[in-house]
From TrEMBL:
Keyword Hydrolase: yes
Enzyme class: transferase
Gene3D superfamilies: 1.10.287.130, 6.10.340.10, Histidine kinase-like ATPase, C-terminal domain
Residue ranges of the TM segments: 34-53, 59-78
Membrane topology value: Multi-pass membrane protein
Annotated keywords: ATP-binding, Cell membrane, Hydrolase, Kinase, Magnesium, Manganese, Membrane, Nucleotide-binding, Phosphoprotein, Protein phosphatase, Stress response, Transferase, Transmembrane, Transmembrane helix, Two-component regulatory system, Virulence
Primary localization class, coarse: membrane
Catalytic activity as recorded in UniProt: ATP + protein L-histidine = ADP + protein N-phospho-L-histidine
Obligatory cofactor(s): Mg(2+); Mn(2+)
Domain HAMP residue range list: 79-131
Protein name: Signal transduction histidine-protein kinase/phosphatase MprB
One Pfam entry name: HisKA
C-alpha cells in the first residue's frame, strides 16, 4: 500500500500502475514505436468513425467522441514511451538541488531507454565526484590544521618568552613548515593528476646512480632518522626508460614512507632487477617496520589513507596515491606484497612495495 507522502516531490510516481501501459517495450527503436502509435491512433479513429456511421450517429456528434477516444488511447500508449523522460526531468531537478542519489528506472531498449541508462550512470559518477570533493576539502582542512596549529603554538611560545629561540625550538618550527610545504607540493601534484595535463619526458635512466641520488635526498628529508640504507642494482648498469623526475618522485615517496615507519636502527633495502619475463624493470622497497595488513593493502594507495598507521606516520596521506599515479603514467604497476624475508609475512605483516615499469612507457 502506498503512503500518502510517497513520491511527494515526484508527481509522475503517483500514477497508478494500471495506467502506466507499456505494450511497445518490446520494440527497440523509438521511431518504430512512434510510427506504431500514430498508425494505431489513426486505425482507432477510423474504426470508431465506421461504427458511428453504422449506428446512425450524426457526424457532428460522433466527431468529438472519436477525437476524445483516440486522444485517450494515444495518451495511454505514449505514457509508457515518455515515462523515462519524466523521470529524468525530476532527477535533473533534484541534481540541481545537490541530490545525486536519484536514478531513472526503465526497461526500454530504445533510444530513450539508452539515454535513461546513460543518465543514471552520469548521476552515479557525479555523486561519487561530489563525495570525493567533499572528502578532499575535509581531509585537506584537517591536514593543514595540524601543522599550522603546531607552528602557531611554537611561535606563540617564542614570542611570549615561554620558549627560548634556541636551535631545538627553531627546528620544531622548521619541521612544521616543511610539512606544510610537502602538503602543498602534493596537492599541486593531485591537481595535475585531476586535470590530466602531465606529460612524460622519457629518457634512459641509469638506476645505480639514480637510486643513490634518491636515497641521499630521502635520508636528508628523513631528518637524520636512525636507519640504514641499502641499495642493490643487478646488473649494475641496469637502465629503465622513464621520466626521471616522476620516477624520482615515486621512489622518494616510497623511501620517505619506509623511513617514517622503520624502527630505530632498522634497514631500508632498495633493489632493482629485470622482471622475470624480461619485459621491464622491478624496483622493490623493503623496510623493517610494522608492515601493512592485508586488508589495508588495497587502500594505502588511495588519497589520505595511511594503512592504519595515521597516528605514528606524520605524513600527509598523499605520497602513495601520487606514487601510484606516477607509475600509472608509465603504464606500470605498484603493489604491496608479502616480504619473503620477514618471519611474520605469513601473518599478513609485510613491508615490501614493488614497482614494475615496462620497457616502453605507455605515456599519459
Amino acid at each position: 500500500m502506498t503512503s500518502p507522502s510517497e513520491g511527494a516531490g515526484d508527481p509522475h510516481r503517483r500514477v497508478p500502475e494500471r495506467l502506466d501501459v507499456r505494450p511497445l517495450e518490446r520494440f527497440g527503436s523509438f521511431k518504430v514505436k512512434l510510427g506504431i502509435l500514430v498508425g494505431a491512433s489513426v486505425a482507432v479513429a477510423a474504426l470508431l468513425t465506421q461504427v458511428s456511421i453504422r449506428a446512425g450517429i450524426e457526424p457532428l456528434l460522433a466527431l468529438p467522441l472519436v477525437v476524445i477516444v483516440a486522444l485517450v488511447f494515444t495518451q495511454l500508449l505514449a505514457r509508457g514511451m515518455t515515462s523515462p523522460l519524466r523521470e529524468m526531468t525530476g532527477a535533473a531537478r533534484a541534481m540541481a538541488r545537490g541530490d545525486y542519489s536519484r536514478t531513472v528506472r526503465t526497461t526500454s531498449r530504445d533510444e530513450v531507454g539508452q539515454l535513461a541508462a546513460a543518465f543514471s550512470t552520469m548521476a552515479s559518477e557525479l555523486e561519487q565526484t561530489d563525495r570525493m570533493r567533499r572528502d578532499l576539502v575535509a581531509n585537506v582542512s584537517h591536514e593543514l590544521r595540524t601543522p599550522v596549529a603546531g607552528l602557531r603554538a611554537q611561535l606563540e611560545n617564542l614570542v611570549d618568552g615561554v620558549t627560548e629561540p634556541d636551535p631545538a625550538a627553531l627546528e620544531v618550527a622548521l619541521t612544521e613548515t616543511e610539512r606544510l610545504s610537502q602538503l602543498v607540493d602534493h596537492l599541486l601534484d593531485l591537481s595535475r593528476l585531476d586535470a590530466g595535463v602531465v606529460e612524460l619526458d622519457v629518457e634512459d635512466v641509469e638506476l645505480t646512480p639514480f637510486l643513490h641520488e634518491v636515497v641521499d635526498a630521502a635520508a636528508l628529508a628523513s631528518g637524520g632518522r636512525d636507519v640504514r640504507w641499502i641499495i642493490e642494482v643487478e646488473p649494475a648498469d641496469l637502465v629503465v626508460a622513464s621520466d626521471a623526475a616522476r620516477l624520482h618522485q615515486v621512489i622518494h615517496n616510497l623511501l620517505e614512507n619506509a623511513a617514517r615507519h622503520s624502527p630505530a636502527g632498522g634497514r631500508i633495502h632498495v633493489s632493482a632487477h629485470r622482471t622475470a619475463q624480461d619485459d621491464g624493470v622491478r624496483i622493490d622497497v623493503h623496510d623493517e617496520g610494522p608492515g601493512i595488513a592485508r586488508e589495508d593493502r588495497s587502500r594505502v594507495f588511495e588519497r589520505f589513507q595511511r594503512g592504519g598507521l595515521a597516528d605514528a606516520s606524520g605524513g600527509t596521506g598523499l605520497g602513495l596515491a601520487i606514487a601510484r599515479w606516477a607509475v600509472g603514467l608509465h603504464g606500470g604497476t605498484i603493489e604491496v606484497l608479502d616480504d619473503p624475508r620477514r618471519e611474520h609475512a605469513a601473518e599478513g605483516r609485510s613491508s615490501l612495495i614493488r614497482v614494475v615499469l615496462p620497457d616502453t612507457p605507455a605515456g599519459p
